[in-house]
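Annex B.
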Amino acid sequence: MTSFKRLPSTVTPIHYSITLRPNLTSLTFSGSEDIEVRINSDTNEIVLNSLEIDITSASFTPQNGKKLTPLRIQSSDETETSCFTFSEPLTSGTGVLSIQFTGILNDKLIGFYRSKYQSREGREERYAAVTQFAATDARRAFPGWDEPAIKATFAVTLEVPIDRMTLSNTDVVSEEVLEDDPRVKRVKYSTTPLMSTYLLAFIVGEFDFVESATTDGVRVRVYAPVGKASQGEFALSVTAKAINYYNDYFGISYPLPKMDLIALSDFAYWAMENWGLVTYRETALLMDPKNSSSMSKQSTALTVAHEVSHQWFGNLVTMEWWTHLWLNEGFAKFMEYLCVDQLFPEYQIWMQYVSQTFLPALQLDALHNSHPIEVPIGHPSEVNEIFDEISYNKGSAVIRMLHRFIGDELFRKGMHSYLSLHSYKSAKTEDLWTALQESSNKPVRDVMSTWTLQKGYPVISVTSRRDKDSVILSLTQEKFCADGKLPANESTTRWLIPISVIRASDPNQIAVEVLMDSKTLDIEVPNVSTNEWLKLNASCVGVYRVNYSPELLSLLLPSIVDKTLPPLDRLGLQSDVFALVQSGRTSTPEVLKLMDAFANEDDYTVWNAIDGCLAKLNQLLSHNSEVLQLFHAFGRQLLSKTYSRLGWQPIKGETHLDTLLRGLVINRLISFGDQSVISEAKNLFDSHCAGSHVIPPDLRSAVYRAVAIDCNDKTFDTLLKLYRESDLHEEKRRLSLGLASVKDSNRIAKVLDFALSVPISDVRSNESVLVIISVGLTRNGRDIAWKFFKENKDELRRRYESGTLIGRLVKHITENFCTEDTLQDVQTFFTENAFPGTERTVKQSLESILDSLLQDVQTFFTENAFPGTERTVKQSLESIRVNIDWLSRDLQSIHAFLTKRS
Ligand code: BES
Ligand code: ZN
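Aminopeptidase: predicted structure tokens.
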């Protein structure tokens, strides 16, 4: 890759007047723009971004000067720029650059693209023209300075068929039918605030809407495909409340007179925060009270709160460059929870944060191929690669840690001054630290830079000794590595860690709080009674793992069983032990024993984390039928109490978390082959299809999976039929994911073809990836999905090359490999038939089989580069290695433990 350069600053834009005229049948567009620019120093070139558009003519008119036509216009796909060269120098001052161009309404879900829908009557296929400009695709819709820090104002005009509606960031100022073409109307929008290009949006299509307003009169609308407007009611009410909330929290009012949300049928991301016109995938926004699950409702609330928070953090104050993407995203991920906690206290959303967001960050960041939160970003394709759990999840986790460290009041004060100071401008990570350091008087910058500039996080080993009435805890920090192998050059890495300790005598109160700023630290806890448990990292706020001495750990165990240890601390303890197992610091039977202590657990959040561990073990053991059967029996037993407490029928007045827990438990029992659960699911499905009883939406995912696993042709076709008939994307998604769990290899192949059906008539392009991933996550589907991926590489690349979906696909489809069948055969054979003296040879041959598998993945990606997935591939290879080591270390002891248990 050639070295990447940012645009020269010799010429910068002040105001764009852009007119776009999409043709919704030929799927092309034409456009023209007058950009008022400032020439900052004499030059005879103007360089700006443009990609896959044809510039048909251009001119430059200096203020008070005569119009100049460029000598040449050179466009480069490589640098994604166009350079206009003039025969004479343009001198300092202002002027207007006029450009005429044409482009394609593409099917790649980026830039100015098409989205398919059925017309109101007649079920004719039509296209809407919509945009997705983040991170760097505004340049595909109009030539411009497409960098986040280069802000300007925009006046947008859309010329569209008279029977279509249009939307943009601001309100309409005028609308007129063209005199020379009465089938076309010209819609002009009012000038935007000073903003970045990636936040612009234009939409042309047919939509219905519902409307409401915030307390101070900002008009809020949710647009949905024709006929679905009422499904926008929930998001509408969340949006109005969220704007009220942030107005108050940041002490700065939302600056636009309106806020529109729109559900798009084809959409690459989950949601995008365009200023005043936030776009969503249909599933992310629309709620059908009869058919949407509680989980989906909760997820909509979080998504809306996330995008609304960007209106301040991101839109008003923008990251200076993509290197600071984490700041936008990590912050919004933090804010979404803060806001939803206020709007829906019954969700106990901060508890869910830990299993949903915090733990996945720790999982990825334990790899050697992880990356620091802040990474230098050059070429646009690199942005996609940091659209990951580090930027979002770890980013939010370090902000949550900081929020706790300085307290809400001072945090808020600092935020207010940061946002005020940088409004309508851009900022860097450092600027935020400066503001928060000033408001709090704490060493924010020093603490935070250890978390954002270094990859990974520490594991703290703790031992204890008595000193009269006190206990002295001795802490040592060291970088945590998933494979347990700390590279020499990282052995001295240190973090500044806010440490908290809780104790049995008052579990909900933090007993000691200190900042650990060296490799080791002794902490004195006064008046500790014999056998009193002590635990670090209250509520998993600190981004670290803890490795307790056996004595400390054994004191903690009873507090799990009697639940005197608070839920997030039970969860944290379990998760830490699991991570230590994975890294080889302790053995898998230890964590299985610990899991036993959770048989009486009743908290959804805790189960959610345990479920993640069960899923991981299920993947790991999936090649060995015998051990897998034993493990399933273990799992069924572990879940049995909770299953009998909750059953299948929603209990009137039950908590939101119990509703979520029921779905989780049933789903897991289905994975673990629980026959009574599976047959109950089949009964429900039959009566659902017969129309006599509707499956509660919260249980549909589980039921569809249960009936799909061993289905016959009839059931398979019924699932497909339900899929085609449903109009709700959420339901389609559940059905397609259900289908993805079929066991029979012919049907697996059918599902994969269905996922990638061309033309895209069955599964929308943005949903295909998830279906393929889901197949890849099943035992029988894994190898088939990998083969399918390799065979369809060209189509996959064509569809997704410039987005983030491809990275997700690569990750999930490869990272769970732990062995190929051959490897397993060999291993099982030699486990069952030991030949004394050949142990080393067997190990070596396992290694080489493993190497050939790693080689397969590696070679494929070397020969077939998918830009932007390079790091993901490395991470997957590393995860495979971790899986293999883990399995070869512990398979026997797991077998022995489970056999004894059964
Ligand atoms: N701004 C992002 C989407 C984005 C980021 C697009 C970078 C292109 C490049 C948006 O706010 C976002 O974070 N969307 C998430 C969902 C959100 C609720 C976490 C997504 O689409 O996955
Ligand atoms: Zn975001």
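Residues 306, 310, 329, 332 surround zinc ion (ligand 2) (CB under 6 Å). The radius of gyration is 29 Å. Further annotation is deferred to the next reporting cycle.
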